[in-house]
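ok so for the tutorial part 2 we go from a plain amino acid sequence to predicted structure tokens. step 1 is just haveing the sequence, like this:
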Amino acid sequence: MKELMLGNKAVARGLYEAGCKVISSYPGTPSTEITEEAAAYDEIYCEWAPNEKVALEVAHGASLGGVRAACAMKHVGLNVAADPLFSISYQGLNAGLVICVADDPGMHSSQNEQDSRHYAIAAKVPMLEPADSAEALSFAKKAFELSEQYSTPVFLKMCTRVAHSQSVVETAPRAEVPQVPYVKDPTKVMMTANSRNAHVRVEKRTRDLIEWAETCDLNRVEMGSTELGIITDSTSYQYAREVFGDNASYLKIGMVYPLPEKLFTDFASKVSRVVVLEELDPILENHCKMLGIPVSGKDIFPICGEFSQNLVRSCMGMEQPETRHIEDVIPVRPPVMCAGCPHRGVFYTLKQHNCMVYGDIGCYTLGALAPLNSMDLNVCMGASCSGLHGFNKAMGKEGEQHSVGVIGDSTFIHSGITGITDIAYNMSNSTILILDNSITGMTGHQQNPTTGKNLRGDPAGKVDLEALCRAIGFNRVRVVDPYDLAAVDTAVTEELAAEEPSIIISRRPCVMIKGTVHKPALKVDESKCVGCKSCMKIGCPAISVRDKKARIDTTQCIGCKVCTQMCKFDALSE
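step 2 — the prediction. this is what the tokens look like for a chain of 574 residues:
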């Protein structure tokens, strides 16, 4: 049956059709929908793991148990999963294992735009890269076949455009794959001689895969005009076809590691000029140069950012097609916390204290933007805890009394626990604020180990954050309601002055959680409003000032009353 399908949904369908039985993932844009869509199939056990390292280890364990398994993550999540990845590459498998990784060129929702193809090269793990939803489905199935044929995990690499665009796919029934019996094998213990022998096997595997890549249907040649030959992959292939059509020939690469050699040289010999079109780093281009093929690549196209049809035309010196332009200048709309967001009061208070705020990864990163301007930096998941500890070890009391780390509940479980363990164990008087909004917010409201529900919304084990922090060694653990600005101010004041490590848990569910009941919107008493704009300092999008009077957008306001605590004239009320 044919169906219009999102790229990530097509991956999930491919995993289903291939007989996958276990998927463990950590949500991260643009990979999240793979696992969410797979959870719709009762035949697949799906879970949200605490982080990507755990997810890969769970999937690998399922493979050892004899069933086809997968995990999904975004590109920065692969950094977290890298530790087991390299050893699993050596160790081999029992049943197939597919690692879905989604890159984010243009950094639509990421702190960097690293190229995951480097991990395939470094770990010597084959990587397939689809260019549309149909390939996403078929490549997912092919990945399991390769995984079992060569006893290796296989990457399925997506990017934002392929993951979040739709194209036609043709679905098929699910293949029920028999479970492979587990057999004890001492050579799988990765130590000394076993590891050395495994490395030799990996190198042979790579040579075998290169030979296979020369004729596999994942890589294909499409001959058109021989004046121009384009070597390309992923969504760049789609841009090339739209821009050049039959005025070029194409070597479309679907298996981006390991790369064939003869296929490249044969293609180059048939065309007058070779151009390599690929987003981010020059992986295909460097392969061509290693083979002695003269090519144009990053000397024409940028190494940064996401490509488009117009960018390709511009870089190739072609005329742009006629387009319609909107004459009026559209005002910039920067991202902003939702009206009533529980994080807003916390960041307002930290700004009042002029704190150095070591941030983390989540929707609360928006606390860095105006008018709050109260996050100094962020690095990666969990770094706020360990980074603050290092900062305070360098700064001493000056740092300890004027600096905090902020981290969300899901991010805390992901990789903040080890950071606060370092604080408690090595004793810096650091203050960490755990912003517990009862959900994984930024990636679209996924459950996590602190919510008491699993991926499918069923009751699950729930981490007690207060008990956990005390068990680690914190004597000072307190919970505040972020809607109560006075309580937040008192907590921050007292914990910064404390002579020992402390935890402040800011607890209030995300206002966007389905089923949340909001209070009536507030109103402005214009006879009391003097237009001082104090209410604007909180940065709530439901509040504006017109004609020197505050205005409340009743379609956005949820009645949180944070703004009422800032008005000295009682002009805001229910």
